[in-house]
Design goal:
209 residues, alpha+beta, five-stranded mixed β-sheet, four-stranded antiparallel β-sheet, 7 helices, 9 strands
């Protein structure tokens, strides 16, 4: 039986067997813009781990002591109070890990609007005809609610999915256009992981000419 004392060697080794530092990856890269656009602080200090766990819908791991034995850790996103799951005690594993696993296996929700009712909102700017044509194709995706805006030009962007946001929004750039025309779409994604999965589906079907 594993001891529930968090600083016991066997418990720490168990935790570190499935926790890892937030190294760069495709998943982290997809939310890095939002990370850089906000200030993430805990008691006045920058908190990278909290921020990435929050944006990715995951949890943090804390060593017992110094007030870190609570199941949630509160911090600031700019001036707004937010919190993230914190795993320190064995009961925290039972609290957070099933939720994370359930979210990873959750079936994506489809939009119940007919394709003809999905709104396409674009700025009257250069490339409007290209974006309108592309958007009319894109809204056939069952996980897309609509196109909510155009992006500023991104002529040096080579990635189709520019950014995945936590509120179901995805920024898309058409890298085959000289000026890097782009749009922002609203999806049915309820978490960052669902939205990222939808972004992968969109890229697979529409990420080419």
């Amino acid at each position: 039986m594993i001891s529930s004392i968090p600083d016991a060697v066997n418990v720490r080794n168990f935790y570190f067997s499935f926790f890892r530092s937030p190294y760069e990856s495709d998943t982290v890269e997809s939310i890095q813009d939002e990370y850089y656009e906000c200030n993430w602080t805990y008691e006045g200090e920058e908190c990278i781990g909290f921020a990435l766990a929050f944006l990715l819908g995951s949890a943090c791991f804390s060593v017992y002591g110094g007030g870190w034995s609570q199941p949630f850790a509160g911090f600031l996103k700019d001036e707004n109070a937010v919190n993230v799951g914190n795993i320190c005690l064995r009961e925290h594993v039972a609290l957070h890990i099933p939720r994370i696993q359930d979210e990873a296996g959750t079936e994506l929700v489809q939009c119940d609007q007919p394709v003809s009712d999905k709104k396409i909102i674009l700025r009257n700017d250069h490339g409007l005809d290209v974006l309108e044509e592309f958007s009319k194709r894109l809204v056939r995706c069952p996980y897309l609610i609509g196109v909510v805006n155009s992006l500023p030009f991104n002529p040096y962007e080579r990635k189709f999915i520019k950014r995945v946001r936590e509120n179901g929004l995805i920024e898309i750039v058409l890298p085959w256009t000289d000026k890097g025309y782009g749009i922002v779409v609203r999806t049915t994604g309820r978490t960052i992981m669902e939205t990222k999965r939808i972004a992968e589906i969109i890229e697979e079907e529409f990420g080419y000419l």
